[in-house]
Amino acid sequence: MSTPPVVLTIAGSDPIGGAGLQADLRTFAALGVHGASALTAVTAQTTEAVRAFWPVEPGQLRAQLDGILEDLPVAAVKTGLLPAAELVEVVAEYAAAGRLPNLVVDPVLVNRTGQPFVQNSTIEAYRRLLPHAVVATPNHFEAPLLPPGAEPLVVVTNHGTDTVSNGRVLEADRIDTLNTRGTGDTFSAAITARLAHGDSLDEALTAAKVWVTASIAGAVNWQIGAGPGPIDQMHWSLAE
Fold first, then answer.
1. How far apart are CA 217 and CA 100, in angstroms?
2. Residue 81: which domain range?
3. 105: helix, coil or strand?
4. Are 61 and 40 in contact (CB under 8 A)?
5. Spacing of C-alpha 61 from chain mean position
6. 1 lies in some domain
7. Cross-strand pairs, 109
8. Residue 25 lies in a domain
9. Strand, coil or helix: what is 91?
10. The CATH number of the domain where 106 resides is what?
11. pLDDT tens per residue across span 184-225
12. Helix 120-129 and helix 85-96, axial crossing angle in degrees, nearest 10
């Protein structure tokens, strides 16, 4: 087997294993890329709620990024939870220096009910990060919160339909299931993996949409936790 492309996720940990950094790494593995990770937050969660989170210090994030980027040939990067303005600014600094190729920004700004769980200063800091991304993937709650200005292509996700800022629409049949934990993370991670494989952005968006839809379908009957469960990023259901 030839050496796989290397991709990097800059994200928070999900101890439940359905979202965040864990979902990213599973998606990377399933799509044939080597996943590196820089941790931005330790969290305490159930499938029903985020109970607490503790951001890393900016210096801790810098040390992680320096080690990864000095040693590995990173071909694409995605961001997930950046829970403090200082952490968004660190990532923006590395992106501005050209060190984060094929950057996909998944702005994790609100909870499942649409209520922001980061401060306004953190949201505003995205003004410095977004211009360096090739695509951003907010959900329909997060998109109105993003600061205006120079922006990449934006994909607003909303259940079965994703609307792209260039007028394109990505559609799939809506699947009736509560198991949707990590859907947004999986979508953005799949885009990142496909970009690392050399896909154009349009190709990566199409492939990611197909991948995440199959991942949701595969976990329809899963029963993991009291709340919304994870999706099938590994596509185990296809092997049954």
1. 32
2. 6-239
3. strand
4. yes
5. 17
6. no
7. none
8. yes
9. helix
10. 3.40.1190.20
11. 999 999 999 999 999 999 999 999 999 999 999 999 999 999
12. 0
